Amino acid sequence: MNHYPKPPFNPQQQPVPGDQRKMDPMPDCGEQSYKGSGRLANKIALITGADSGIGRAVAIAFAREGADVAVSYLDEHEDAKETARWVEAAGRQCLLLPGDLGDAAQCTAIVNDTVEKFGRIDVLVNNAAFQMTYKSLEDIPDEDWVKTFNVNITAIFRICKAALPHMAQGSSIINTSSVNSDMPNPTLLPYAATKGAIANFTAGLAQMLGERGIRVNSVAPGPIWTPLIVSTMPEESVKHFGGNTPLGRPGQPVEVAPIYVLLASDEGSYISGERYGVTGGKPIL
Prior knowledge:
Pfam family, one: adh_short_C2
Strand content: 5-15%
Shape: globular
CATH topology: Rossmann fold
InterPro entries: NAD(P)-bd_dom_sf (IPR036291), Sc_DH/Rdtase_CS (IPR020904), SDR_fam (IPR002347)
Order of helices and strands: EHEHEHEHEHEHHHE
Family: Belongs to the short-chain dehydrogenases/reductases (SDR) family.
CATH architecture: 3-Layer(aba) Sandwich
Region (Disordered): 1-28
Keywords: Oxidoreductase
């Protein structure tokens, strides 16, 4: 635990959506460290926002646990190719699915393309997200509010709806919420509102799908060192990012991936409707 970097970090900013290869320090997505044990042998997983950050770490972990992976991402093609390289190095197949999940047609397309390639979906991870920092309510453009909700929560509804006909009993849906779901950062107001909605949607959907034997859970990360941070926060916030946690640092994507593995695996067969915090010591309510 103690070998991970702590703030202050070098000042840095990138254009949205960010490039993991240009971050300093580089996030650890488990490329060299994650060791699998066959917990997801022969499962098929669709993961959104899997080009970098938490999504890449989950894709690598799933592949090393034995799953084939479909990677949905916006337009970060080089980062996505790197994710695919690690998935394939684990001996698994990887399908790259670029496109904007704010578009309803793209939400359906990634499901259809995954099913066409692999025949079914056993694990659906809704992880893609958009955020920006704002100083006041008046600073939030209407189009940013709509975009944040379209990408962060409406897309989850659309993808789940499209995927369900291709998910059998024992399948798992995992949605990425946030510590902001119950402790909202006011400068991330639209993002935090969607993360609260994701937690609520997850709890309701778990009850709705229980009789079909499909489990639904959410993961609530705290401050995790990903391209989303350096592309959407001011330099001063990036410099001290994660320093206010009890562990005194941001988490690395590889530290979040294991809870997704548990929730995706048959070992999590009686876990549904829950929200799991990975927050560096900050409790979620």
